[in-house]
Amino acid sequence: MPQAGQLLRPAKRLKLAPPPRRAMLLAPPGAKRQPPAPAAGESQRRSLPIFQARGSLLSQLRSLDSAVLIGETGSGKTTQIPQYLYEAGIGCQGIIAVTQPRRVAAISLATRVSDEKKTELGKLVGYTVRFEDLTSNETRIKFLTDGMLLREAIGDPLLRKYSVVILDEAHERTIHTDVLFGVVKAALRKRKELGKLPLREAPSSQDILVFLTGQEEIEAMTKTCRDIAKHLSDGCPQMVVMPLYASLPYSQQLRVFQAAPLGYRKVILSTNVAETSITIAGIKYVVDTGMVKAKKYSPESGLEVLAVQRVSKAQAWQRTGRAGREDSGICYRLYTEDEFEKFDKMTIPEIQRCNLASVMLQLLALRIPNVLTFDFMSKPSPDAVQAAIEQLDLLGAVDRKEDQLTLTPLGRKMAAFPLEPKFSKTILLSPKFHCTEEILTIVSLLSVDSILYNPPSRRDEVQSVRKKFISSEGDHVTLLNVYRAFKNVSGNKEWCKENFVNNRNMMLVSDVRAQLRDICLKLSLPIESSRSDTGNIRRCLAHSLFMNTAELQPDGTYTTVDSHQPVAIHPSSVLFHCKPACVIYNELLHTNKCYMRDLCVVDADWLHDAAPDYFRRKLRAAKN
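^ that's the sequence the OP posted. Answer follows.
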């Protein structure tokens, strides 16, 4: 049985317990084939002599490149072994071929095995004989005459479509069978040289790491893998499926470093957090989708979008290096070599694909004589630099005098905060609206990974417990409600668990907030609370995030005010089923659509009060 994996070592003879004797996939010397019995049920399959040896037989076949099986007539070799291999996942990467010297035997055996598998002939089980082919794309067990396999080998000497080849009735020593032995041995040897062979089942101690792009994709794949894990065949190591992404509760993140129970293997589904940041012991196999979620900024449109895109060659090799950190390993890349050659050689530096407003603000705070000619290691585009300066100008952070750029007093205060300029401006404006306490909380919540944990398997339960926090005014006020409730219970871990709140991230929010509050005190900012008045909070947000505005169109869709980009409300937003006339958002995520995330309902008049010149220009541009 040449199996794709490694190719021929000397064939090993497998001895079955008496009375049937066992070894590879060849019939007994001198035995005559008996006509197949009528379709057998599961109980009849279990009554066959070979069933007693199923476990040990599969165990040995997993570890062999080729084998010889000898058993008595009627022991169930021909009909059962292909099924055992299929059920155990051995050779599941391709087709299991079973050759017969005669067409009548190939047809009748295919019919019987199809009946036993309770499937239509030509689907899972099929046959190919001269002038007749009853197979399909679904066929995984294929009976065929040795002459037909020989013909296929003329077109494909490596027999690539087959992962297991069973040469049955070898004792008859027909011409085709003798030639096939040479062909199969050559294919086995050549496939090994070319490295074209899939594995056999790996030991349970060898774990798998899969790189995916984000939480939604990981959670969906986790559910799929756990469903598969419930139906794994006998002898196949069981799976422990573990998601890994930033907003996952810390206790669940730590599970990936723990060894799987005896007889189980870990399958870790991760974002690129596992690409460089951490090393997980026991990873032998990596599956690289070749995709990653990263920010891309367009200075022309002013949009900074979180989008799924191709990794670079450097990232692909980094992911490959996660396999076998303690020993040799294997990386399965879900893209072709031609596609790989089209990847960028190196990851584009972040400074060339992000909004530079924060960078420009820091350079000006450092009193760099001319930020336009600063010696960057990887120079961003002039358009990106100009767009950043224009944003800072709109926020009131810079003065332009001839060719000189300097920070305004407001801009110098903005530079004191380790935040994006728009959030620094939000905090500095908050005393005007008497809501500094609340704005500090909201900005802190937006500065860490998500505090909300949303396991898909418990969606109804999540929605039920979240109702008490939801605000019709948007996600910012909803997050504020969650934080207030968290502080009311003094950060109780059990409360976090019951309300699907990430306790570790929430503690980090408290730390960030304390640091931001200290900066406010150093800047002598009055710190007041709006208490239950959320209107002032939303006004404050509108006055600083006015560049991230979208308006409802007559056809029920949204477009951004800045660039008239079509956008939609992200399903995770509390406003997903609402249609407010005007919203501000924190960021855009591009998947199949361009989605707004973290939204707040605002009044259009507030926006015009915040930046009248900006909105007048946009209105003129829209009319033209």
